[in-house]
Input
Amino acid sequence: DIQMTQSPSTLSASVGDRVTITCRASQRIGNWLAWYQQKLGKAPELLMYQASSLESGVPSRFSGSGSGTEFVLTISSLQSDDLATYYCQQYSSYPYTFGQGTKLEIK
Amino acid sequence: EVQLVESGGDLVQSGGSLRLSCAASGFSFSSYAMSWVRQAPGKGLEWVSSISGSGSSTYYADSVKGRFTISRDSSKNTLYLQMGSLRAEDTAVYFCTKARPTGIKFHMDVWGQGTSVTVSS
Output
């Protein structure tokens, strides 16, 4: 199975900050990576797919990059609405696997 | 509007069975693969199972293989997860997801609101 490791596990930042979350795969997955945002008590929502494609309706302050084994989700200017937990997920092969999540806190 | 509505979650005893349903609307159900993902209380996301659009191919996490069965009924636009030999560690919110193809792979683009399963020992 492909293991996905996110860092950091928790991140505290101020409104307006640039925020980056890293996701590493235990083996090469091409660019078959998605990012999800989950707000407290809600279902996850798709942010990015194929590592760098922005889902329709997602604010342009979100961007993704990477391929192979290392991926990054960037929020260019943090907003209070971005308070959430973020997950990466590989869909290169079954079993699909998720990172453990990064909890983003607003200072 | 694409919508996924799960139902069937309940409190069940260890060793028991349960069937979850996911009613889909707003898209051509039989054209898309579907999946179940679960989240234990206070924990992260865990992929459980996927099924192709035709229903001919199914995939399972090792943690549920042999105990859970995914299926779909295109006449009812409904996805199912038959859960058996339930264990305390199956306690979770179960999400139904729709897959979107990109090239030769599928990512999960739409999620339902989830249904809660509690297994008591």
Notes: Residues 15 and 85 of chain B are 4 Å apart (CA to CA). Chain B touches chain A through 25 residues (CB under 8 Å). Chain B has no helices and eleven strands.
